[in-house]
Every structure is written in structure tokens, then in C-alpha cells.
């Protein structure tokens, strides 16, 4: 969208571009599957990893159901109380300056999220997939947004909130399409833009990929600050020490538990602080970001975590996950008409369901018990009228 079509006087006038883009997300995911099948005769991902990524995406958005965006709240507060001067909201120069400002702020936040352990504990959720596809773009942390907001505040001293709100969404939306393997390199654009090739490197656990290519929309920041790396050897995706789980709750919480345990096991007060604020590879006597030689070597024979699950269980999980997506989107559409108790009940059921699906995809023995409990809860609350589909034919299916 050019500046003239995406400039607004007030924040209230700014469209929710992310929600409007959901049909395009679905379309592009379908195209990625088709192109991947044509190119390689294989699909770009797995059912278990795809459900896990989408579950993490839904979890990351649930706080927005209850609270306003901390990015905008903090930005508007600084703008109202501390701005130094005001750039015109309808100027193309303001629009382009904000594009650069938001992307540079993202670069700074993204880099620090890899270099500070407590921030990495949140951001690593996005990197935990061993697949690399458009589902991975939706794999987000619940906690990350509560640390990223502060990097945008310097812009609030002179850039109107409405312009910032537009570019905050644009920067996020741009990053969706670069999570794919079906697009190779894009010629001269590789010098300026963050592309699928550059971002594949960022998601790699090969030693040459670690802590590289932090840009959101632009790759120029990495070239300027020495964090750029071109795609070379075949990239192996995921964390250097894979978590081997599809449980979205565990994926959100285990890194924090690891920091907690390491904090108490590490002697010395300064060392304990270093566990929190230095890099995830740090240890006593090591450099701030750890030792590069301790990064596991990639052999090319790495096998992604992929427990055997019967085909019928995959089909079951897909159908029930689709039901949860329906309930989630209906919750977003009707939030203003629901009581707080009903909203909290629906959120609880969504979280319970996503956790159950994760255990099913791992074929855990306790998954069956949790799934029976979940289905009984669904029957009870549906009969009491607390659940409703946005599609009438699904309401009939739920009754059945």
C-alpha cells in the first residue's frame, strides 16, 4: 500500500491489517504446498509440526483478547507526555522514515533477543520448529511482545502513533512470506530486502548461521553492523539443542524453567545475573555469547523429531484442531458481546485443547486421558450455551 492509502490522522482509523490478511495467509500456505509438491514431490512440512506452530500462534494472540496492545499503549503514553515535536501524519517523508525506524527498532530488539538469555527464552519459541515453511511464521511467543515495546519508544518523541501503528503491522506482515523454501534467491533485491534466502540462514542451526540476519523487512542493518551471512551450505533448521516436543505450553515454559534451574545451580551472585542477562551459550569463564566451538557440528544426517502416530490420530487431531480454530475466530468476532466469564472459559478451553493436541502428536500415554477430559468439557459447556460456531452447519455438527 502506498503512503496515500495507508496514512491516517488517528490510531482509531488504522485498519487491522493483520486480521484482513488472514485469507491471504491461508491462500499462500496453499500455494506453498502446491509449489513444493511440483518442485520436490513432497510437502513443505508435517502435520505434527504444523499443528504445533499454529497452536503457538493462537496462544500468542490470546492475551490480545483480554488486553490492549502494550506496543500502542506505551507508545501513545510517550507521545502524549514527552514528544519533542510532531511530524505531519500525511507526509510521505514521515511514512518512509517510520518504515526505516520500525525496521531498525526490530533489528535492535531481534538481535538482543538472541544475545540476552531471558529474552531468548521467549524468542526461541519461534526458532523451535525443525521445519521451515509459512506455518513457522505463525509460531510466536506469548511473552515476546512484553519486551519488544520499549525499542519503539524513541520514535514516539516525534512520529505520530497512527503512522507507527500502520508500520508495526506492515513489518510483521512482511515477515510472513519469507518463511519458505520454495523461493530461492531474488537477484539484486537480496542486497536490500530480507528475503527467504536470508531468513533461512537466520533459522539455521548450522554454525555459520548462528546469530545472523536479524533484519525484519530490510537486510541493510545486518550489512551495516556485521551480522549478515549469505546462504551457503544446506541449512538445517531449529535450535542447536532441539526441544523434541509439540506441546505448545511446554515450548513456552521450558526455557524459563531452564534459566530458573541454571540460576540456582550457578555459584556466585554476578554469575547468577550473567545467567539471565548474558547469552544463552554463556557459562562461567566463557565470553558473553559463549564459545563458537561449542555449537554442535551439522553432519547433514540430522533427523527431525517425528514420533510415529497412526494415520487415524493425525486425522482426528486435524479435525479437532479445525474446531478450535473456528471457536477462536468466533471468539474474536464476538468478544464485545460476551461476558468476562464466558471469554475466560473459552480461553481456558482453547489452551486445554492445544495442550492435548500437542501430547497427541507426541503419542504420549497421558494424551488419551487428557483428550477424554477435554471432550467431556466441550460437551458440557456447549450444552450450556457457552460455545457457538460462526458457521451454522458447524453448530449442527457440534450437536451431533
How many structural domains are formed by the residues?
3
Gyration radius from CA atoms, angstroms:
22 Å
Please count the beta strands (DSSP E, at least 2 residues each): 0
What class do helices, strands and sheet pairing give?
mainly alpha
Give the distance, in angstroms, between the N- and C-terminal Cα atoms: 45 Å
Helix content: 55-70%
String of helices and strands: HHHHHHHHHHHHHHHHH
Strand content: under 5%
Query: Which whole number gives the mean pLDDT?
Result: 92
Largest sheet: none
Shape: globular
Instruction: Note the total helix count.
Output: 17
pLDDT < 50 runs, ≥5 residues:
none
Structure summarized in a few sentences:
By secondary structure, this protein is mainly alpha-helical.
Question: Can you walk me through this structure?
Answer:
With 400 residues, the chain is mainly α. The protein folds into three domains: 3-225, no CATH class; 248-294, no CATH class; 311-399. 57% of the residues lie in helices and 0% in strands. It contains 17 helices and no strands. The radius of gyration is 22 Å and the shape is globular. InterPro entries: AGMP_C, Fatty_acid_hydroxylase, Sterol_desaturase/TMEM195.
Keywords:
about 0% strand, 17 helices, globular, Sterol_desaturase/TMEM195, monooxygenase, transmembrane helix, mainly alpha, about 400 residues
What is the topology?
Layout (H helix, E strand, L loop, with lengths): L16 H4 L1 H19 L6 H20 L3 H13 L9 H24 L1 H11 L6 H4 L7 H4 L12 H17 L18 H7 L17 H6 L22 H18 L3 H9 L33 H24 L5 H22 L5 H17 L8 H8 L1
Helix pairs in contact: 3-12, 3-14, 3-15, 5-6, 5-9, 6-12, 12-13, 14-15, 15-16
Keywords: Endoplasmic reticulum, Iron, Lipid metabolism, Membrane, Monooxygenase, Oxidoreductase, Transmembrane, Transmembrane helix
Cofactor: Fe cation
Catalytic activity: 1-O-(1,2-saturated-alkyl)-sn-glycerol + (6R)-L-erythro-5,6,7,8-tetrahydrobiopterin + O2 = a 1-(1-hydroxyalkyl)-sn-glycerol + (6R)-L-erythro-6,7-dihydrobiopterin + H2O
Amino acid at each position: 500500500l502506498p503512503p496515500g492509502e495507508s496514512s491516517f490522522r488517528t490510531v482509531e482509523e488504522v485498519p487491522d491489517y493483520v486480521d484482513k490478511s488472514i485469507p491471504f495467509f491461508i491462500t499462500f500456505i496453499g500455494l506453498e504446498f502446491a509449489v513444493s509438491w511440483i518442485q520436490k514431490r513432497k510437502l513443505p512440512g508435517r502435520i505434527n509440526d504444523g499443528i504445533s506452530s499454529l497452536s503457538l500462534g493462537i496462544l500468542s494472540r490470546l492475551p490480545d483478547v483480554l488486553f490492549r496492545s502494550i506496543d500502542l499503549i506505551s507508545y501513545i503514553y510517550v507521545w502524549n507526555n514527552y514528544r519533542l515535536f510532531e511530524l505531519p501524519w500525511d507526509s510521505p517523508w514521515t511514512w518512509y522514515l517510520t518504515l526505516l525506524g520500525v525496521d531498525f527498532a526490530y533489528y535492535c530488539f531481534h538481535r538482543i533477543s538472541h544475545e540476552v538469555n531471558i529474552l531468548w527464552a521467549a524468542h526461541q519459541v519461534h526458532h523451535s520448529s525443525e521445519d521451515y515453511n509459512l506455518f513457522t511464521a505463525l509460531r510466536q511467543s506469548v511473552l515476546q511482545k512484553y519486551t519488544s515495546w520499549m525499542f519503539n519508544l524513541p520514535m514516539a518523541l516525534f512520529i505520530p502513533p497512527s503512522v507507527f501503528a500502520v508500520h508495526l503491522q506492515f513489518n510483521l506482515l512482511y515477515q510472513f512470506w519469507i518463511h519458505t523454501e520454495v523461493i530461492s534467491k531474488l537477484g539484486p533485491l537480496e542486497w536490500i530486502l530480507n528475503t527467504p534466502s536470508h531468513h533461512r540462514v537466520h533459522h539455521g542451526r548450522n554454525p555459520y548461521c548462528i546469530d545472523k540476519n536479524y533484519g525484519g523487512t530490510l537486510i541493510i542493518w545486518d550489512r551495516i553492523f556485521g551480522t549478515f551471512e549469505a546462504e551457503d551450505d544446506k541449512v538445517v533448521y531449529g535450535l542447536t539443542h532441539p526441544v523434541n516436543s509439540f506441546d505448545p505450553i511446554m515450548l513456552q515454559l521450558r526455557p524459563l524453567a531452564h534459566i530458573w534451574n541454571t540460576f540456582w545451580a550457578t555459584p556466585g551472585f554476578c554469575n547468577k545475573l550473567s545467567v539471565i542477562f548474558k547469552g544463552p551459550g554463556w557459562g562461567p569463564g566463557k565470553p558473553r555469547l559463549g564459545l563458537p566451538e561449542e555449537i554442535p557440528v551439522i553432519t547433514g544426517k540430522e533427523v527431525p523429531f517425528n514420533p510415529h502416530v497412526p494415520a487415524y490420530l493425525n486425522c482426528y487431531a486435524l479435525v479437532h484442531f479445525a474446531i478450535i480454530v473456528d471457536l477462536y475466530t468466533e471468539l474474536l468476532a464476538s468478544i464485545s458481546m460476551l461476558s468476562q466469564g464466558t471469554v475466560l472459559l473459552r480461553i481456558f478451553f482453547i489452551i486445554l485443547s492445544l495442550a492435548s493436541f500437542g501430547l497427541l502428536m507426541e503419542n504420549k500415554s497421558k494424551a488419551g486421558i487428557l483428550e477424554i477430559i477435554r471432550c467431556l468439557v466441550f460437551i458440557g459447556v456447549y450444552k450450556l450455551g457457552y460455545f457457538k460456531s460462526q458457521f451454522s452447519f458447524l453448530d449442527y455438527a457440534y450437536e451431533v
